[in-house]
Amino acid sequence: LEEIEQTINQGERGWLSTVNVAILMSMRHDPALQSFVDRSRWIIADGQPLVWYSRLDTPPLPERVAGIDLVLPLCAWAEASGHSVYLLGATAHGNARLRSLLAARFPKLRLAGRDGYFSDDQSAQIAHDIRAFDADILLVGMGSPRQEMFIDQHWRALNTRFAAGLG
Fold first, then answer.
1. 138 has which bridge partners?
2. Strands (E), the chain
3. CA-CA distance, 111 to 58, in Å (whole number)?
4. CA angle, residues 158, 30, 59, in degrees to nearest 5
5. I need a labelling partner for 26 at 20 to 30 A (CA). Which of 10, 100, 106, 128 fits?
6. How many DSSP H helices and E strands does the chain contain?
């Protein structure tokens, strides 16, 4: 979290990849997903089996970090520092409910979002909308590899400081 905050504060950009066993296996057969993870500024083990396996190597991973566990601390920091968050994914109802819950918990947080049910034809417009909102943090929950491919394909247009696919 400190590295993400420092990156945003310094005006730099980067995305985080949350890798679990399913994503790791998909990377073997999906060069675009492999490339996305390889170019990530941060990679976290979002699966306990990866932590267990790492103990066969040195140094082992210290712990599992579920991507979803970053949402509340990131929102708390964004609220305190005046940064904005955009939530992309889930159903329209689910996204609205999450935004409502976060807005209640972080009343000064500049927050927006929309569902993840859209066609490829609409993705450029959605990226434009995210940029128009001036999102510093983009949290995408559309499942892998769709969320990673959205971030990758629209990275320049999004102009967010930090992005992560969280499920």
1. 86, 163
2. 14-19, 42-45, 84-89, 110-114, 137-141, 162-165
3. 41
4. 90
5. 128
6. 8, 6
- Token pair for 150: 């959205």
Binned at pLDDT 50, 70 and 90, residue 57 comes out as confident
pTM above 0.85, yes or no: yes
pLDDT at residue 135 in the model: 98
Alpha-carbon torsion angle 108, 128, 151, 66, nearest 10: 20
Are 86 and 113 in contact by the 8 Å Cβ rule? The answer is yes
Give the angle subtended at the CA of 79 by the CAs of 143 and 69, to the nearest 5°.
Answer: 35
Supply the pLDDT for residue 119.
97
**Distance of alpha carbon 144 from alpha carbon 128, whole angstroms:** 22
Tokens describing residue 9: 């504060």
Distance (Å, whole) CA 50 – CA 156: 31
Can you tell me the distance from the alpha carbon of 167 to that of 108, in angstroms, rounded to the nearest whole number?
A: 26
Mean pLDDT within 119-140: 98
- What burial class does residue 41 get, using C-beta atoms within 10 Å of its C-beta: 0-12 exposed, 13-18 middle, 19+ buried? middle
Q: Name which of 136, 36, 7 is nearest 82 in CA terms.
A: 136
